[in-house]
Amino acid sequence: MYAVWAVLAVALFGAVLWSRASDVSIARPSAVLERLASGPVLRVVLVVGWMFAGWHLFAR
Amino acid sequence: MLVGAGYALAAATTSPFSWQADLLTAIPIGVLAVAAVMRWPARPRVRVAEPAAHATHPYRAWVVLLAVVAAWEIVQYAAPGSRALHPTLSSMADAVDRSELRKAAVFFVWMWLGVAIVRAGAARTPVSETDGVTGETA
Predict the structure, then answer these.
(1) pTM greater than 0.80 (yes/no)
(2) For B51, what's the count of Cα atoms within 13 Å in the CB-facing half-sphere?
(3) Which of A9, A42, B31, B108 could form a disulfide with B8 if both were Cys (CB 3.0 to 4.6 A apart)?
């Protein structure tokens, strides 16, 4: 089952590299983050998700 | 940067479920909440990626990838058996956190992502052309 996670990690890395090529149909990670952080609802989801991740990973 | 690295190292020495871990994790959370309230506009303008000529859905690939990751996480979480057989993101993170240095690196990345989130949502007047986004009303 770790193999599936590895495939997903490779896909994520590939998407990042692909987005850096010119004239492609995928937004860069910075643009995705800006889109999320500038949405009236999505920015709340983004911040709460970040808070939950930190609390879950390091405190509880 | 050095302060952040030092803070991450200090946080990495704490044990989960201790008041020290609670405190050192809660401080960045509180700082981000305050920074977001202070720096983010009350009524944000949605900023979308400037699409390439043939790109109609620049976020589709990311949405699909996120959906697949979430679905696989749920499948692994619900599957009967040990976490070694059905690892989740949390169980893999726990394995990484067994080393204080690796835990400090993860904590630092988490804090850096928080800073990036605040910056990404901050109000700005001129549109930068280096990050591939443009202003657009929702």
Answers:
(1) yes
(2) 10
(3) B108
Amino acid at B44: P
DSSP state letters, chain A: -HHHHHHHHHHHHHHHHHHHSTT-SS--HHHHHHHHHTSTTHHHHHHHHHHHHHIIIII-
d(C-alpha B83, C-alpha B80), whole Å: 9
Can you tell me the ipTM of this complex? 0.90
Are residues B52 and A24, on separate chains, in Cβ contact within 8 Å? yes
Cβ neighbours for A10, distance < 8 A, ≥ 6 positions apart = none
Tokens of B55: 């790109």
How close A13 gets to chain B, by Cα (Å)? 11
